[in-house]
Amino acid sequence: MTLIPPVDPSSSVLLDAEPHRDPVVEAPRVGAAVDPITRLAEALARGEITGDEAVERILEDVLSDEFLLGAPPQLAAEVREVLTAMVETSPHLSSLAASLGARGAG
Fold first, then answer.
1. In this predicted model, what pLDDT tens digit does every residue of 68-95 receive, in sequence order?
2. Beta strands of the chain (E only): which ranges?
3. CA separation (Å) from 100 to 2, 66, 73, 95, 103?
4. Distance between CA 35 and CA 26 in Å, rounded?
5. What angle do CA 76, 87, 106 make, to 5 degrees?
6. Quick check: 3 pLDDT over 80?
7. Domain segments of the chain: what residues?
8. Which residues does 2 contact at the CB level (< 8 Å), separation at least 6?
9. How many Å from the N-terminal Cα to the C-terminal Cα in the chain?
10. Cβ(96)–Cβ(4) under 8 Å?
C-alpha cells in the first residue's frame, strides 16, 4: 500500500497524477476539501518545505492518529522510533522518502 504518491523531484509533479488534472498545480475548487497529502505536495512543490520536513510531517500525522493520542508517551515515542527506522532502512520507504527529496533516504 503506497501512502505517498511518488513525486518527480525535478518537476515536483506527482507521477501518478491523472493526465487531465495536475493536483499540485491546479488550484482546488472554492470550498473543496484538500487532503493533507495534497497540501503537503503543494508546499513541497512551492519550496516552502524540504523533503526531510515532508517526511517529518507525514510521521507527525501518523503519530497524531486517534489511536496513538490515547497511548502512553513512551509507546508513542517507541512507535516514532520504529517508523523512523523503517523509513531509513526499508528500500521501498526510503525510495519514497528520497522521491520527496529527503536527504537521509535512499
1. 778 888 888 898 899 889 988 999 888 8
2. 7-8, 13-14
3. 14, 26, 29, 9, 9
4. 14
5. 160
6. no
7. 7-99
8. 96
9. 19
10. yes
